[in-house]
Amino acid sequence: MKKVLVVGAGIGGLCTAIRLLNKGYDVTILEKENRVGGKVNIKIKNGARFDLTASVLMTPKIYTDIFSEVGKDYRDYFEMIKIDPIYKVNYYDKNSYKYYSELGKMVEELENLEDGLSIQYLEFLYKSFEKYLNSKKYFLDKPMINKEEILKLKTIAKFLESKPFITTSDYLKSIIKNQYLLNYLIFQSMYIGVNPYKNSSLYTLIPAISHIYGLWYIKGGFYNYIEALKKLILELGGKIYVNTEVEKIVINKGKVIGVRTNRGNYKSDIIVCNADYPYAIKNLIRNKDYKEIEKQDYSCSVFIMYLGLNKKYKDLQVHNIYINKNFKKSIQDAFKGKLPKYPSLYLYYPSKIDETISGKFASILNVMVRVPNLKDSNIIWNKDTVQKFRNRIIKELKNIDGLENIENDILYESYLTPIHLKHKFYAHNGTAFGLSHKLNQTAYFRPHIKDDNIKGLYYIGSSTHPGNGVSVIIDGSKIVADEICKG
Fold first, then answer.
1. pLDDT tens column, 354-399
2. How far apart are CA 471 and CA 194, in angstroms?
3. Average pLDDT over the chain, rounded to whole?
4. What pTM does this model have?
5. Sign of dihedral through CA atoms 183, 189, 191, 197?
6. Contact 387, 76 (CB under 8 A)
7. Contact 289, 277 (CB under 8 A)
8. Taken in order 51, 56, 305, 381, is the CA torsion positive or negative?
9. Residue 110's closest CA among 82, 80, 140, 89?
């Protein structure tokens, strides 16, 4: 039985482990923290379970397929609840709209907003969903290790059909004329940490699949999915060692032979590295090429507030967006080294449908803002910076219907900054989404899942192909497992 070591128990490491266990490999996972999940983690306070980062679950079949592949029923491990409306969107001018995945309700809402707007929406939906299907078929579901994969005439033709050289904002503006709907779609298109006013229109597929497949909620919070994966790994005979930090991937004559950790050495001729790619090649492999990786463009970061509250808010949905004035500037500030003066916000409110998650609080709320990564700014994330930015966010929250007195309702609050992402999760530059998804950093041009020079070394994570986003990485684990099986 071939042995595999997985470095890091993030979503990619866990899912790759399951797929390799199912193929007969002996798999051991080494995780430096005392809890698995990587950035997809949890914060526990007074019995409340705050999802640390990930909260939006789209394309549910990707989450459940990994269980059916090993002969398990996912319903024995976790419960998924479909959400509709998928978003409530509040605007600075006090207007608010609910947007649905159920087509009839969405059309009705849009026609109430503006006559004929649903026709524009349907055109957007058709064209952007086609981008998604082509992206999966020709790029996301392919290893993209060899140039030949991207140089096939059909692949090139499908790539050009998607109009990738038009920016997200310009592409959407060519279809959607209503500013309320337009800004909502632009906001969603930046979920993988790209600037929608500069980067490719390919990423309009994100709001499209949100509406077509809908959004789902895992009862008990997103981290329950991580706990389900952990349970499955142990059932399949896998081993997980926490508090075990890999200090070096040991290589001999161009081939991996094991790892050195703070708790001793482990031998293996196959290693899957789920640590952040730039960190791994600099610190674990000590590859001189890391300087080239550091020069590349990186995604933005995030600032997240975790609030334990003394009341429930009937006006909030599970997923909420606040579109502020000067929307374009506030979004672009995260890519220009600035904290937005009038931030637009994403609000995650699981207490809307799940009473098990709030602990001793009446409800809990996460508030997320895109902010610059540590490379692209001179922001010093000290207590004063955090407090001032927190106050700026609270001021905007008070502009949302039902949240006018939210500051008086806060019993507990804490924060996540780019500094936390850098030091706790070794995220290069404190980014939230790894290497940027610029066109020249995607597919074959992104770090490969199989090391080009070191035999037996594979990668999975946000900075490698196929890219970042929980569902994308789950699917990517299938490609990694298949490549390992090929030898």
1. 999 999 999 999 999 999 999 988 899 999 999 999 999 999 999 9
2. 17
3. 95
4. 0.96
5. negative
6. no
7. no
8. positive
9. 89
Show Cβ contacts of residue 177 under 8 Å, excluding neighbours closer than 6 positions.
Answer: 120
Taking the C-alpha atoms of residue 329 and residue 342, their distance in angstroms, rounded to an integer, is: 9
The residues near 217 (Cβ < 8 Å, ≥ 6 apart) are 57, 80, 81, 82, 83, 318, 350, 353, 354
Burial of 262: CB neighbours in 10 Å, binned 0-12, 13-18, 19+: exposed
Give me 85's structure tokens: 């409306």
Long-range contacts of 184-190 (CB under 8 A, 24+ apart): 184/87, 184/89, 184/97, 184/99, 184/321, 184/323, 185/124, 186/327, 186/331, 187/321, 187/323, 187/331, 187/344, 187/346, 190/331, 190/370
Sheet with 410-416, strands from edge to edge, namely 96-99, 87-91, 319-323, 345-348, 363-371, 301-309, 410-416
Closest CA to 13 of 196, 254, 229: 229
List beta partners, residue 96.
Answer: 90
Q: Say how far apart CA 487 and CA 205 lie, in whole Å.
A: 34
**Length of the chain (residues):** 487
Matching residue, tokens 């096939």? 152
Closest alpha carbon to 10 in 272, 301, 296: 272
**Cβ(51)–Cβ(221) below 8 Å:** yes
